[in-house]
Structures are given as C-alpha cells and as structure tokens.
Amino acid sequence: MKRQQILDAAYTVFSHKGYHRATVDEIIAMADTGKGTVYNYFASKEQLFYTLVKERSAKFETELNRLAGLDEVPLIKIKKVIKVFLEFYVANADLWRVLMHEMRGLGHEESTNFTAAQREKYRERFVHTIGVLETILQAGIEQGAIRPCDVHKAAHGLFSVIVMMVFQGFVDAQADSIEANANNIADIFLYGVVAR
Amino acid sequence: MKRQQILDAAYTVFSHKGYHRATVDEIIAMADTGKGTVYNYFASKEQLFYTLVKERSAKFETELNRLAGLDEVPLIKIKKVIKVFLEFYVANADLWRVLMHEMRGLGHEESTNFTAAQREKYRERFVHTIGVLETILQAGIEQGAIRPCDVHKAAHGLFSVIVMMVFQGFVDAQADSIEANANNIADIFLYGVVAR
Amino acid sequence: MKRQQILDAAYTVFSHKGYHRATVDEIIAMADTGKGTVYNYFASKEQLFYTLVKERSAKFETELNRLAGLDEVPLIKIKKVIKVFLEFYVANADLWRVLMHEMRGLGHEESTNFTAAQREKYRERFVHTIGVLETILQAGIEQGAIRPCDVHKAAHGLFSVIVMMVFQGFVDAQADSIEANANNIADIFLYGVVAR
Amino acid sequence: MKRQQILDAAYTVFSHKGYHRATVDEIIAMADTGKGTVYNYFASKEQLFYTLVKERSAKFETELNRLAGLDEVPLIKIKKVIKVFLEFYVANADLWRVLMHEMRGLGHEESTNFTAAQREKYRERFVHTIGVLETILQAGIEQGAIRPCDVHKAAHGLFSVIVMMVFQGFVDAQADSIEANANNIADIFLYGVVAR
DNA sequence: CATGAATGAGGATTCATTCAT
DNA sequence: AATGAATGAATCCTCATTCAT
C-alpha cells in the first residue's frame, strides 16, 4: 500500500519536476510516508524511476503486442496502432518526457544520471516499441499497400510525430480527441500533404 | 576573448553533460579561465546557457527568414527549408537536445531550472521557427499546391520528424547525407507512404 | 535457539566489519531470523555486542583464574599464562580487535558508541585480566625469581606483545604454533635480547 | 590558513571521536569555516584524515631515518630510537589510536571505511617504521651485541610495547617522563625481567 | 578585468529502533 | 515468541554564487 502511494507520488513529482529536480523529500511528503520507507521498496531514486516506467508501460506493451499480432489490413492496422500510441502517451506524457530526456545520452556516457545498464534497459523498450511500427510497415510493403521505403526511418518519423502531438498538447485525453488526431496523423502519414 | 573561450567550453560541456550535470568548474577548466570571470560576463549559469543558444541560432534564424521571404514554388521551398533545418540541427544536435529538455515544461512552472521569463524567450524562438514552416505551408495551400489541413499541427509534425532524424543519428554532417535525408523526409511528408 | 543463532551471526559480522559497519540487517540475514527477534533478546546493538564479548570470554577468564591460583614456579607459570592468552586471542582475534577499538576512549567520553557504563564494564574485564599477570609477576618478585620492577607497566607490556603477535598474524591456531610463540615471547620477556 | 585551521580542527575531532563518529559538521564548526571549504582542500573526509596523518608523521619519519643512519653502538641506538618513538606517539596518541583501528583490516577488505589503496599507503608507513627497528636489531645481532632471534617479531613486540605504554597513559609529555619510560622499556627489552 | 578562496543551502542515502500483528 | 514494515535522525558531499584582492 505504501509502495503504491510512493509510486503515485513519484509519478507526480517526476512528471512535474523532471528526474533531477525531483527530490525524495518531496515524494515522501506527497506520499505521506517516511524517507526510509522509500528505500525499503526501491534501492535508489533511479530504481524508483525505473520501476515507475516499467509498471506504467506494461499494459501498453501488452496491448501493442496483441495488436501487432492481429490479422488485419495494413492501413487499418496503422490507424489502430497510432491510436494505441496516442492513448498511452496522452496518459503518460509528462513522465515520458522526462524519460526521453534521461535517455538522450545515446552516445555520451556522461549525459544522464542513469547507469549504463539502466539506460540500456530503457533503450530496449523503445527499440521494441518502434520495432512494432517497423514490422507493420514492412508487412504493408510486402502486401503492396505501402510503397517501398526505409521502414526504420519511417517508423521513427511516425513515432516522433505521435509523441510531438502529445507533448505539444495537441491531443487531450478525450476519446474523440484521440480518435480525431489519430486519423489526422494517419492521413498525412499515409497520403502526404500534397494536393491532388 | 575570454568570453568566447567560455562560450566554446560551455558549448562542449552543456552538450555532453546536459544543463544540470554541467558544472561551472568543468567549464572554466576547459576554458582555461577563472571562476569569477564567468560571472563577469554572464549573470548566471542559466544566462550563460541562454546566450549560447542565442548566438548559435542567430545565423540559422537569419537564413530561415531569408528563405521564407523568397518567391519560390511551395514544394521546392519546403524541400529547401527542410535542408536548412537539417543543417542547423545536425551542427547543434547535442546542445538543442539539452535545450529542448529544459524547455519541456511548457505547462508546468516548476519543471525546469529556468525562470519563467527565460523560458518564455526560448519558447518564442521555437514558435517563430515553426511559424516559418506554417507560413510556407499556408502559402502552399493558398496556391493550391497543398491540400487544406491544420497547418499548425502539420508544421509541428514536420518539425518533429526533422529533429528526430537528427537526434536519432540518422543524419550525419556530410552535405550529401543532409541532401538525401531532406529529400526523404520531404518525399514522405508530401506524398505519404501509401503505394499508388 | 534463535538467541544463539543471532550471537553466532553477530560474531561473524562484528568480526569482519567492526562495530560501526556491522548492520543489524546483515546479522539477521546471516542468523536467518527477523529484525524484531534481535530486539526481543537484546536491548540494542550495543547490548548484543556486549553479551557476545561476555559469553566468549567467560571460559577464558575461568581458566585464567584457575591458573593464577595454582601453586607453581613463577617462571613456569608465566609461560603457561602466556599460552592461555595466546589460545584465547588467536581464537577471538577479530572480535577483540573490534572491542579494543571501541574501548580506546579510555579518557574521552565521546570517543565510542558505547555508553560510559558499558565501557566501564569492559574496562573492568581488562583490568582484571591484566591484573592476573601483575599478580603473577609480583609473586615472582617476592620469591626472588623476578627482579623488582614496575609490575603494572611490565604486565601491560607483556599483554601488548601477546596481543600484537596475534593481531599481526604471527600466531596461527595450530597448537604447536601457539606453543612455539609462547616460548618465544616468554624467552625475550624473561631474558631480554642482549647477548651474554 | 583555512587549510591549517581545518587540519587542526580535524585533528581534535578525529582524535576524540574516531574516524566514523567524527562529522564534517563538527570539524567545520571548530575550524570556523564553511562546509564547502573543507572540500576545496580535501577531496573527502577520508582524504582529510590521510593528509592529517601524513603531515603529522613527516617530521617523525625524517628523524627516524636520520637516527637509523647514525654510526652508533647498537644498545645506545635502541634506547635513542625508543625515545624518538615515545616522543612521537605521546604527541599524537589519540590520532594514531584511530589510525590503527582503521588499519586493522589487514585481512578483511570490508572492515574499515578506507579504500584498499589508501590502506596500502598507511600500511607502507608502518612497515617502514617498524623496518627501522628491525634494521637496528639486525645490526646489533651482526655485531654480537644482540643474541640471534626473529628480528621481525622482536621489532613488532618492541613497537607494541612502546605504543601500549603511550595508549595506556603511562607516559606523559614531560621530557623526563619520556626519558624515564624509554629507559624502562629498553631495560626490560634488553635484559628481561628475570633476576640474576 | 581576472581571479579563486570561501560559502552553505540542498539532496541522496543509511540504519538502529519501534510496534502492530 | 517471532516478525518485518515503517520510520526519521544523521551524515557526506555537490556546486552555483559571491567578493576581496
């Protein structure tokens, strides 16, 4: 119970302050618990953050995998997957913004507070997530629905647009807002902006 | 002269360490100067960072404005502007990654180390930069080259893709890499991925 | 039973880590018991340590007293008592090293973690132990076997040599190693190093 | 100046409290300085302690080396060297008590707060110091003044007696107390306690 | 201008002890 | 009797900033 209180408080504080500026003191104040309690459940501030990310993304990853496995027309599948992404990132925008920053050190060892091992775990999650997009695009190409292109880059591009829409606050948590924006993104991604 | 040494050192350190983990001590060591000297030229660490960003982006903004003012076919203009963006972000990837993180709190007051006033200045730069994209798209729509869409969102989407390509290391500093990637991004943005 | 498990574990942990660095967590892990259980049997970490010392030294003190009471030629008695000391300290070297450190503040109130009352108890044990050596030396002087000297200092000197030999690892637990070293120490203590 | 104030305060606090219980806060309070200042001069609490030991022992080691090099009758030399030892340890008793404790982990890695590298430096000092005693004894044996014995053990024994006398408070800082005790120790070490 | 010694607020982490079950 | 979740006081260390020279 205390554990969940701490995770909830940590979510709020990390989301608002970022990793560095979040203090354990503030987390415990919000969780209404003692400082030692945090360290009973989590080995360190870093570990607490990692656990938070892992627990928050578990359902999303399951849903994503389920969707990827469906037998579905590629263009439909793309729309659906965009929607799933939007739903997840809208619900977790603030925390993922923080995570993505701490992950940025994909080349410089020294650029985050995280250990190399920890960062690698995060990276694998991202690689897998974007990998699902790649797989769907690749299937689309093979079925002739998508024209041949660099799926790796295209998947990253699509991913970045989704995330940006959320981070910029263009999408709110309403179901129809998500639906509309998913269609919007899919529309341009699939057909481009050129008039015909 | 000292001033420039400090800015150069600050660029390196901020780029590698991020804002938080960059220390004034490290900057002065690299700049081969005294700690007090930094505070003679810059009111604070934050101010130093801001100055750095401003000076680095000055030429880019000039170039961007020049380009926006040209009388040019919209589709060509879009390609050109993508290239200018790529050139700038490739050259400044590390520092802008840091900047964008510190900017992330576009809603939460407490989310960065920066003062509200400072953040507002940064935000205005971004708004203006993306605004150029919007203007170009809008002109394209009015000329019938681009189909009607939410230019605000579309501009943000395009911007996010450009930045993502750079941050993910898909684009290197070679002129032809930039050219190729610019064409690639433009191609999908303009025509979509659907086979025809 | 739990009580003994705790004492055994405490012995190992205190011996290896010293008083300060030994943690109750480590002790209970090794004792395979719960944290509360420790506090059922021992009022505090300090009390646990004290009990440990008391129980480990009980047999030694009995043996020492028995030996002191024997009717024996002084020089022989000295050799025997040295051997008994060596046997005890070899078997308990690590823990006594720790004890002696925590006792070091024989003048400064603030120098250990122990309460003044607790320290006084330890001190009495040492005083008594060394007192046995003094008594034996004094008897030797009275019988003319030992030349008059400050028995208090001499006893401390002899004690320090014995302890040092053990702490420096010059003596191992083998019976003959103990025998040989006891003879060695006795030889120099009794006859000096000068050639004749 | 601040540096010396800090060292002086550190000496007092370490001496009274031991390494572990000495707090940086207490040191700065006594040194009348800020916390950061300590860390400008010394990388860590451990480094501060090490520096303290090094500076305090420098003169002693020089004097010891000088004495060892003198061309002198062995028995006289032994008396002189005992006196030099007493002088040094009387002046630094409290700090060396602490040092010797932190050094105790000559077998167990985990037993002190000090890093292995740091401990090795301390150990070398001790080895060298006792080595001087060994050299002097060895010379005495070769000149026939001392009877053959294990000089390594004998040197350690002599060392331990000297240290014990000081730590037990048998020797005070008065020149004649030192002189008297040096003679006393030398007398028993050289000629033993047996009556003749 | 240039310097760097001095500062202290702030923050992560440890661990002995308590107490309800 | 046995347990272990909860606690918070205590402590080391960092680093932006100031100011006298």
Automatic annotation (TrEMBL), chains A, B, C, D:
SUPFAM superfamilies: Homeodomain-like, Tetracyclin repressor-like, C-terminal domain
DNA-binding region: 23-42
Gene3D superfamilies assigned to the protein according to its UniProt record, in alphabetical order: Homeodomain-like, Tetracycline Repressor, domain 2
Keywords, sorted A to Z: DNA-binding, Transcription, Transcription regulation
Sections of the chain in a coiled coil: none
HTH tetR-type domain span: 1-60
A GO term, aspect molecular function: DNA-binding transcription factor activity
Protein name: Fatty acid metabolism regulator protein
Gene name of this polypeptide: fadR_1
